[in-house]
């Protein structure tokens, strides 16, 4: 299903409308230490260099607001959510990928990771969220930064993001290595790796 076929504001197959925002994650909530926090872009960058921002610098990047749905693979969805933060397009502009980059790995606290196709990461609704509904995210929901990719299942957008690795070939992230679908399109109910078709991802 192409991006033009998305049905924003509607429930994908198998999902139910959720009024609140349940807290779901693997492992403990990390303690935020602003003096040690750093956001890195590395891997196959256009200039071959690593790009870094401390928390003050990252917070000073251009602020964007998007309206995007939130679809959890556990079958709840929140529709029309306002997210504020730094657009992925801003990061791509400030730290461009090399021409041969096809995928990214988004890294978070405790070595957690999630892989994305570059086009999904660069989508105009994808955002490194710091706010929801005008309010700062809570620690349980990913403060200081979580990735939101509204057109994919929410596990593709990790909490507590610390950086992005540009890749010239796909590589599975944390949940993708543990049985979740490599792409995660909710409109196609791409929940689990056994549903994958040839070309959907690297061999397990």
TrEMBL record:
Residues 27-175 form the Oxidoreductase molybdopterin-binding domain. CDD domains: arch_bact_SO_family_Moco (cd02109). Pfam families: Oxidored_molyb. It comes from the Bacteria. InterPro entries: OxRdtase_Mopterin-bd_dom, OxRdtase_Mopterin-bd_sf. Coiled coil: none annotated. This is Sulfite oxidase-like oxidoreductase. It comes from Streptantibioticus rubrisoli.
